[in-house]
Every structure is written in C-alpha cells, then in structure tokens.
Amino acid sequence: MEGVFKPWLSIELAKSTYAPGESIEGIIYLLVKEEVPLGSVLSLQFLGKEKTQWSTLNELPGSDDRISHSGKQEIINLQAIIYQFKEQIPSSTIIQIPFKIPLDISLPSSLSYFSGSCDLAQVKYILRARLDDIFTQADSGFQSQKLKRVVFIQQKSLIDSAQSQISIARKIKNLLVFNKGQTNIDIYLSKDSYESNDIAQIMMKIDNQNCQKDLKSIVVELYREVLLQQTNTDDQNLIFRESQVLMRNKFVGIKKGEQEFNQFDIKLLDITVDQNNNKQSYMKMMKSLQKKQNNDELLMLENLIPSSKGHIIEVNYNLKFKFKHQGIIIGTEIPQVKLPIWIQCPQIDFSHHKLPFRLADYNILQQDIQVLENSMTRGSCFTILDNMQQDKIRHQSQYFMLPQRIHDDQNQDIAQNKEEFNDHQVEEFKFDQIIVQEDYV
Does residue 385 sit in helix, strand or coil? Predict the structure, then answer.
C-alpha cells in the first residue's frame, strides 16, 4: 500500500488512482504516543469539489476592466466517526482501522487546468482523518490532530462504440454542376478510450472506385474543448469555452478508381503542453492563497488533462477529419467530420512522492511498539456510506457510544450526556466541513 505517515496519523491506500464505481480501500493507523483523553474520536471524511475561475472584459465602452467569474460545486461529501476512545490505550500503541468508501459511478475525473484565459479549472478529492477531544477542557494540553490526503479519480469512458465510428457517402461535384462520382469513407477508432501514453489508432476504409477525382489529402486534427460554468450568480448560463488544436497530421490520399484500408496512428505522448505556463499559473495561485504547493498536482500539470464530464466542468477531446479532392475548385466535397475520443490521463505513479517515513520504518525504530486491533472493525472494515446527514449521525449508536469515563463525577445523567455528545458531534461535523472548504483549493 502507498501511504503518507505523520507522527500521529497515517492513511495508507490500496492504490493511488480509483475509478468511479470502485471503492477506496485503505487503513488508518493511529499512533498513540501519549495519553489520549477518554471520549476522543477519530473521524474520516471524503470530500470532492469542482472549482472554476476566469475573467472577461467589461463590455462597457472605453472600459478596460475585467469581470471575474467563478463557480464551486460539491460533488461528494461523506463523513463518519470510525473510532472512539472508550478506555485508556497504552503508549507506543498503533491502532489500525481498515475502511472502505464506495464511489458513485458518476464522479468526474480529477484535474487541474490553467491557461492564459482560464485562471483555474479544478476537480479535487481529499480524504481527511481527524482526532478530536470532545469533553476535555481547552487547557488540558491535548491538541487535535488531522491528516489530509489527495485521492485521484479517473472517470471511465462515456463514449460508446456507436459514437466511435462514422460512415460517409458523398457525391463529388465540380463547379457545383459537374458530377465526378462518389467517395465512400468509413472511420472508426480501435477502442472507446485511450490512456495518455497510448497510440490512438484510427481505422479508415476509403472507397474511391466510383470517383473520377483523386482524393488528394487527409488532414487529422486532435483538439480539446474546455467548458466551464459559474455558480452563485444571476447569470449561471454564462459559459467559458476554450478550444485548442493539440496535434495536426496530414496524410496522402488515394487515386481515383481505387479503394484502400488505412490505419493512422497518433502517439498521444507526442502532444506537448505548455508546462511552464501551467506551473507558473498554479504557483501564482497557491502563493496568493498562502498555501503550499502540492508535488502531485505539479506533476499532473505536465500532462494532458483527462476527459471529464462534471457539473460545472467539462473537458472533451475530438478528432476532426478534413478531405480534399484534386481539382475541385467550387463544388461539393466531403464535409469535415469529427469523432469524440476519450482520454484517461495522466498515467502517473504518484507513490514516489510519498513521505519516506512509513509504519514499517517506525516498527524498526521502536521495537516495543504494539499493534492494537480495533474490536469494532476486527475481521471486517468500516464502510462509509452516502447521505450521512444529521439524522443519521444521531442514530449511529454503535459508533457514538458513551465513553466509559468522562470525569470523576460518576453520578451524571447518562442519557443527558449521550444527547449532549451527539449534539456536540453534529456541530463538530458542521465546523469540520467549513474548515475543509476553507482549506480546499
């Protein structure tokens, strides 16, 4: 498993990238180095958001001002308490809690996109563990601990095989009236989706047997279209649209009276991106937000952004085909056609960015450390389900058990304390969500 380890908390995941419909599986390691107050709870949250930001020129005459547009859309927000300290835990103990988070099939891909005209388009998912003391007073000296980790999602192809092929039959006319016969062309892709290190194979069957003109050339272009929307404004229909040709290849056609089956290859790794511009825009934004740069996000900016269909962000790739017959000046030719292509990227091993301090390393340094099985999850794992709202939080009695010892007064009203505990935890979740949103880029 790939992990990020801190002195108190560690989150290890089975892999670095997940697809919608899968489940995030991992283990939280909680290192107890000193006494943890009874009643302390460990919570886990999985949050996903889309964020857009761009500007347009003010249309008022003589104005050079720019108008800012932005959008935020929460995609997913799952949270639950997964462990509670009901008894004293010896120091130098590691509590390990397996967990599982089922992912909705409609989640869009993780992406970070910056350009000269688009300040920001980002889809980001974070997994956050937090250890809080609920009952002890603020002057107890105990500090809440938290750990945040980015999770990468790759959306599966939304293009079916029917969309990945097209047939064209066109009569060729010169000077609008002179019929020069007909050309038939069938185009299809070798598969529905490609990875960023793939070679996209385009299969093309050209039948020019019944045409009196040579098919002089075939031009294939790969272009990307980015669509962004804003939110929280009266004009929510305002859309930012940016199209860019990423690759253009020109191929020789075929002679009149012939037919041919061709395969055109496009090596996606040859597609260059403006790495410096993307990185500079990213670093400028992080500096303005007074946040640290993320190595994984910087690595993503060196690659193509993935195809994605979200609520306010959409990234589409298309192959455009242009055909030119010899000697046709003013007339009827084969029209431009396009095929959608789904690109899953980037194919990056994020594991080499993890911190070197791992659980195994700690075991080597601390021979007296012991691993404590969590009785609540022994033999299984904790599963975080959707729609865990306030009512469900109140009724998760198996996870919201009253601590065995709150303080020295043993004559407390147990029912009252339990209700206060639940009410307090609901407010903690609300406050925690606000913090996550503030920290979220």
Answer: coil
- Lowest-confidence range among 171-185, 209-223, 253-267? 171-185
Q: How far apart are CA 140 and CA 297, in angstroms?
A: 38
Counted residue by residue, the chain has a size of 441
Closest Cα partner for 399 from 79, 101, 162, 93?
A: 79
Q: Does one domain contain both 44 and 8? A: yes
Average the pLDDT over 199-220 and give the result.
Answer: 86
Q: Is 303 a domain residue?
A: yes
pLDDT digits (tens, 9 = 90+) for 300-324: 666 678 899 999 999 999 989 888 8
Q: Number of folded domains in the chain?
A: 2
DSSP letters spanning 183-213: EEEEEEESSSEEETTSEEEEEEEEE-TTBSS
Which one of 321, 344, 367 terminates a domain?
A: 344
Same domain, 191 and 306: yes
Burial class (CB in 10 A: 0-12, 13-18, 19+), 418: middle
pLDDT greater than 60 at residue 16? yes
CB 161 within 8 A of CB 88: no
Give me the pLDDT at residue 143, please.
Answer: 67
Residue 50: inside a domain: yes
**What integer is the mean pLDDT of 103-125?**
82
Give the strands of the sheet with 259-267, arranged side by side. Answer: 259-267, 199-207, 178-189, 165-174, 331-332
* C-beta of residue 146 within 8 angstroms of C-beta of residue 8: no
pTM as predicted: 0.71
CA distance 8 to 128: 13
Token pair for residue 412? 């407390």
Say if 350 falls within a structural domain. no
pLDDT digits (tens, 9 = 90+) for 27-62: 888 877 767 777 788 888 899 999 988 877 776 676
Q: State how far the Cα of 431 lies from the Cα of 435, in Å rounded to an integer.
A: 6
- Cα dihedral sign, 386-46-146-369: positive
DSSP state of 116: S
105/170 same-domain check: no
DSSP letter for 61, please. Answer: T
The single residue listed with the structure tokens 């659980």 is 359
Q: How far apart are CA 190 and CA 127, in angstroms?
A: 36
Q: How far apart are CA 17 and CA 379, in angstroms?
A: 26
Residues 18 and 105 in one domain: yes
Cis peptide before 346 (omega within 30 of 0): yes
Whether residues 276 and 331 fall in one domain: yes
